[in-house]
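FAQ
Q: What does a multi-component entry look like?
A: The components come first, one per line:
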Amino acid sequence: MSAESDTEPGDVATPSGDAASENGPPIPDPESVDDEGYVIGSGRSGIVRRIDHDDFDPVGTLVLIAIYMAIVSAMWIFMYFVEFLGGDLTVIG
Amino acid sequence: MEIHRYEKIWLAGALLLIVGFIATVSYGAVGAGIEMINDEGGQVDSAALDEHPKFSEPGTYKTGPNEYDVYVIAKQFLYEPGTSEPIRVPANSRVTFHVTSADVIHGYEIVGTNANTMAVPGQVSTMTVEFNEPRKYGLLCNEYCGSAHHAMEGSIQVVPQSEWNETMVVN
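Then the predicted structure of the entire assembly, as tokens:
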């Protein structure tokens, strides 16, 4: 846990005491995998890179949501104004 | 609390959608004049429909210039009138359907249109629609009403104004 508090934004943190993981994904600690299998919450918590709140830039998600919004809006306009209001024999009283 | 700028965008988009949905439905009610079918039709004794002034002889009644009332009884498994002979209304007319049921709950749907109501025993459902072009519409029951529900259907014949005569008023 000491790695978290010591790391500043932009830093690349090194999981403590494990030099082999500097150039790749962290290597699982053999001691955390025992005969009883994986224990929830026992995974490594070493931070590899810390970024600011607004540096997180999920532009793909933004595009995906924009596409969903466009589809929902177009379908709503089609369903309500074309199919429903344009339909025959609308109840008017 | 700090909200990510993308999250602000899609929160605003979602709010805009909700406002848009409510606005279009409000427009439908106020601008386009879409009405909901309610309980204004009143109640009848479903066991004594033959004593009712109109349901005792269901059919088309003229109520004004180009305005007609159509009384329809739905029962297992037919519409009276509608099934054995079509409901007849003139073209370019404003027609109010008064629909009730003599037994169980039925549906009364003019196929492929927005005109659709339930036929509830003891309750009269009224809906007003405008018929323009002469053509034939199908009628069907869309509430499961028994073993021959699938066969419960009828028709509405919109007769050209020139061919319309008073003998068609009450079927």
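Q: Is there any commentary attached?
A: Sometimes. For this entry: The domain at 39-168 of chain B is CATH 2.60.40.420 (Immunoglobulin-like).
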